[in-house]
Design a protein that fits this description.
By secondary structure, the protein is α+β, with helices and mostly antiparallel strands. It has two domains: 2-220, PmbA/TldD fold (2-Layer Sandwich), CATH 3.30.2290; 228-459, no CATH class. The protein is 23% helix and 39% strand. It contains eleven helices and 23 strands. Strands 1, 2, 3, 4, 5, 6 and 7 form a seven-stranded mixed sheet that branches. Strands 11-10-9-14-22-19 form a six-stranded mixed sheet. A five-stranded mixed barrel has the order 8-15-16-17-23. The N and C termini lie far apart (62 Å).
């Protein structure tokens, strides 16, 4: 396929990009002792992008013959010409930049492909049964496994000719506990880039049945927290959610150009000196982050980008077009969900770097506050304002952990929260690998960090 695409591109005039993408998706879900989902799906095709008359043109095809691909190129050119009639601002020619010519099969791909599906299903069945049997208060357990095999080839007329194969397995377990007519759910979700062993080496996979069932039962009797601004220690999952949703999106260069809060902030202080935030294509500081990619969907080698360095904004996240606009090198953040999607600026693995104190030391030095655990759903916007859910909070009094509180929400302005950070732990975890980022199309990402102490607004019930 790679040779075929190179031959086709070699015949073309102007700038052309061909992206072959094949995805094999296997989904398994068990609930109440029955297999609710056992699906296998294969999607494959080629996305074609051209830059003509200062405008992008895009088309796609599921027909992998050379004739069909050339017809798709013609369609993309026609689309670009139509857009150029109404688009006043033209895109300049893309300058030369480093482009990948690697062919990579990432860890776990072949091993997981060979592992029998019945062994994977047996694991899902066992997890559901064991969780349900942990307590008479567990009303329902739901266990799920997903694996996503990705094959990509990127060929461009200015030198990219790269291929990779990778796999992203995910595991989800939910326990719903009930007592006196009240129900509460506890969840443990995880995802990695890698194989079966990589998945079960993840910290959330350790004692996942016991931990999920226990949390559901314990939270049944936990009270609600009283709202207000408080000193809080955020767990790595919440640090990752804050980094990705409330900060990361504001520094995607297309959002910056559109007027996000990060516009004009390069070189300015946006957080305390303890905060260094990065976005990387690799699993920095820990293994098997779920957003790993060797190169992006424009063929640019993917690498680490430091967004905030000791509280100072240093960089935005770029594709090739936005890099031209800002006069910088692309950062390898162009990503497309499927062959029929155009690449957009997207995060990969976003995190805050660890500090020097241990979590124990940070708790011991906190006179009053809360340890917040477990990232939930929420929302953030281009101003950096956010509201997220947290699974539970643990009270801190005189440097000691106390009782648990259920269903806590946190809110604030992200850069104000970063400026209030006064302690960062040495422990680090990737913790959002089961998540999917949404921005017109999904993207597989991860996020995490250390434990971080800051001031934040809590919401609960009286």
């Amino acid at each position: 396929m790679k040779t075929q695409l190179e031959t086709i591109v070699g015949k073309q005039q102007g700038w052309v990009e061909l992206r072959y993408h094949r995805r094999l998706l296997n989904d398994l879900t068990v609930q109440k002792g029955r297999v609710d989902i056992a699906n296998s799906t294969v999607i494959a095709g080629i996305g074609v992008r051209v830059l003509e008359n200062g405008c992008w043109g895009f088309a796609s095809t599921v027909d992998l013959s050379s004739a069909a691909i050339e017809r798709a190129i013609d369609s993309a050119r026609a689309n670009a010409r139509e857009v150029s009639k109404i688009q006043a601002k033209k895109i300049p020619d893309l300058p030369a930049t480093e482009l990948s010519r690697d062919e990579i099969v990432m860890e776990g791909y072949n091993d997981l492909l060979r592992k029998p599906l019945d062994e994977k299903l047996a694991m899902v069945v066992d997890m559901e049964r064991e969780t349900l049997g942990r307590s008479s208060k567990i009303l329902t357990a739901i266990s799920s496994y997903r694996e996503m095999f990705e094959d990509k080839i990127i060929v461009t007329s200015d030198g990219a000719s790269a291929a990779h194969k990778l796999v992203r397995p995910e595991l989800r377990l939910t326990a719903i506990a009930s007592q006196d007519g009240e129900q509460i759910a506890a969840r443990n979700n995880l995802g990695v880039t890698g194989g079966w062993n990589c998945l079960f080496d993840h910290h959330r996979a350790q004692n996942i049945v016991e931990n999920t069932a226990r949390e559901a039962v314990e939270l049944l009797s936990a009270p609600y927290i009283t709202g207000g601004t408080a000193t809080c220690i955020l767990a790595p999952s919440i640090v990752g959610l804050l980094s990705h949703e409330a900060i990361g999106h504001t520094v995607e260069a297309d959002f910056v150009i559109a007027g996000s809060v990060a516009q004009g902030q390069i070189g300015k202080r946006v957080g305390s000196e303890l905060v260094t935030m990065c976005d990387s294509s690799a699993s920095e500081l820990g293994e098997f982050a779920a957003g790993e990619i060797p190169f992006d969907d424009e063929g640019v080698p993917a690498r680490k980008t430091t967004i905030i360095d000791k509280g100072i904004m240093k960089s935005y996240l770029h594709n090739r077009e936005s890099a031209v606009h800002f006069g910088v090198e692309p950062t390898g953040n162009a990503r497309a969900w499927l062959y029929h999607d155009e690449p957009l600026i997207r995060m990969r693995n976003t995190y805050i770097e660890p500090g020097e104190q241990t979590l124990e030391e940070i708790i011991a030095s906190t006179p009053e506050g809360y340890l917040l655990m477990g990232a939930g759903s929420g929302q953030a916007d281009a101003t950096g304002e956010f509201m997220f859910g947290s699974d539970y909070a643990v009270e801190i009094k005189d440097g000691k952990l106390g009782k648990k509180f259920r269903e806590v929400t946190i809110s604030g302005v992200a850069f104000d929260v970063l400026k209030s950070v006064d302690a960062v732990s040495s422990e680090f975890q990737w913790d959002l690998g089961s998540g999917y980022c949404g921005k017109g199309q999904p993207a597989k990402v991860d996020a995490g960090g250390p434990y971080v102490r800051c001031r934040i607004m809590l919401g609960g019930r009286q």
